[in-house]
Amino acid sequence: MLRRELLLAGAALAALPGLPTRAASRDALVYSFARNVGPLHPHGYAPNQMFAQAMVYEPLVRYVEGGRIEPWLATGWTVSTDGRTWDFTLRQGVTFTDGTPFDAQAVKANLDALVADRAQHGWLELIAQIQAVEAVAPDRVRIRLNDPYYPVLFELALIRPVRFLSPAVLAKGEAGFAPVGTGPWRLVETAPGEHDRFVRNETYWGSRPAFAELLVKVVPDPNTRALALETGEIDLVFGSDQLSAMAYQRFAADPRFACKVSPPLASRNLALNSGRSPTDDLRVRRAILHGVNRRSLVQNVLLDLEQPAETLFARNFPYTDVPLEPFAFDRELAQALLEEAGWRRPEEGAMRARDGQPLELDLCFVGSDSVQKALAEAVQAELRTLGVEVRLVGMDESGMTARQRSGEFGMIFGDTWGAPYDPHSFMSGMRVPTHADFQAQSGLPMKEEIDRRISAVLVETDEEARRAAYAWLLTTLHEQAVYLPISYTTSSYVAGPGLQDVGFGPTVNEIPFETFRPASASL
Fold first, then answer.
1. Order of strands across the sheet with 185-191?
2. Per-residue pLDDT for 102 more than 60?
């Protein structure tokens, strides 16, 4: 029960630095996250946290719920008949928080920097497609592409890396970096291991946040986070896996708190390594998929806050409505597949072995993520009944990144990226060796063909041919049992009594803090 979780977290909360007792005020909103938000370079990746990058930096166009693209820093655009030249008209009167004007030269400077560092952004096909960027006029920028790349607008809407740093800062290089964007918030202070402090951008071109300050407390432990919310030290918990499912249900039953779960936003899955024994054998991968009861995981670990997943992508994303036969839970079939692959049990209840080698593999997860840990333990228990020994390897984000790059995993947690990435950007990243998906697919006999077809579909101009290409890719990956889908992930929030107008952003990594208001604010 949550009450027990809260009691267990009490000692940790008492030791947490700089966490004063408070209530939500008109001036400041206190949120929590598991770690500091990072230096917040708009073109950078981990340890930069995406929700915070989206607070400081803005895109040319913005993805909105339902799959539409709307103007943002660009007020309009046109595309040539051959699909290779895009002209964007820029919003006038926008400045960076250092006073530098946002104009075509600023856009060109940022895009040129991305193109100059193509290797860093190899997962994003748009960067590879950019042939040249021209500042046609102060308020007009032209992007020339190598091919008629259909996801242009979707990838311009991403949180990273196609957002804009002040060119005055960009010119100083890495040594002179400061997080200077055009967004509604400014990062003004970072205390490692304690907090990050943002203040409202008083010169913001759009609607300014109701709160003058946003304090992001570093609270690594979900139980401690729940206690801090219960006692009023923080105002808000928001996001995927920030609380355990049990804790969320407890808050949902408490009338003091406002709670809500979003619609499905992405897919939660385990990638199985086809390039490493024992999961290099398709029969073993299929046995794992048939041997894990996803419905049980969703009921007993996620407490039905998410929906069981049957495929890598939910079918409500573009080109993903492909008829695929799910890997139904069937323990007898899983046992038969392992026997067929030569993995025998010397006696009932024993772990399987072949030629003196035990049937075992690593399952890697983020150690501070309570949901991943609970799911990992449940998967371990399910596979143990089949005679498969699963070693749980919990680590921090940097450790997970290293394992993804090296392929040192049997299974590893991963979510698809949700809108507007799925499926094109996520699948584009499958071609990059530093991604877990590339490593997981590395042992497939058709891996080269998969990568070739991904490259081709991204520049395919015929709609029917594009649909057929995605159907082949999704069917092949499904049949090769590279992914164990678990659930379709959601976001959730629990807001304390001092907040109102809390809602979800259009994508899984956006938190619209600028729209939240203190409950005392007048309607």
1. 185-191, 195-200, 213-218, 28-33, 236-239, 492-495, 258-261
2. yes
* Banded model confidence at residue 314, pLDDT cuts 50, 70, 90: confident
Instruction: List Cα–Cα distances, 60 to 11, 65, 192, 417, in angstroms.
Output: 46, 17, 32, 20
Which pLDDT band holds residue 25 (cuts at 50, 70, 90)? Answer: low
Q: In what order do the strands lie in the sheet with 140-145?
A: 74-79, 85-90, 140-145, 130-137
Strands (E), 80-180: 85-90, 130-137, 140-145
Q: How far apart are CA 395 and CA 366, in angstroms?
A: 5
Can you tell me the distance from the alpha carbon of 242 to that of 475, in angstroms, rounded to the nearest whole number?
33
- Taking residue 396's Cβ as centre, other Cβ atoms within 10 Å add up to 15
Q: Tokens 């926008």 sit at which residue?
A: 94
Tokens found for residue 168: 């005055």
Q: In sequence order, which residues have a C-beta less than 8 Å from that of residue 364 and are 6 or more positions away?
A: 393, 395, 400, 403, 409, 411, 412, 413
Helix/strand/coil for 131: strand
In this structure, the number of other CB atoms found within 10 A of the CB of residue 416 comes to 27
Of the CA atoms within 13 Å of residue 328, those in its CB half-sphere come to 4
Query: Are the C-beta atoms of 162 and 155 separated by less than 8 Å?
Result: yes
| Residue 149 contacts residue 127 (beta carbons within 8 Å) | no
Q: Where are the alpha helices (DSSP H) in 40-137?
A: 50-56, 104-116, 125-129
- Structural tokens at position 77: 């655009």
CB 479 within 8 A of CB 286: no
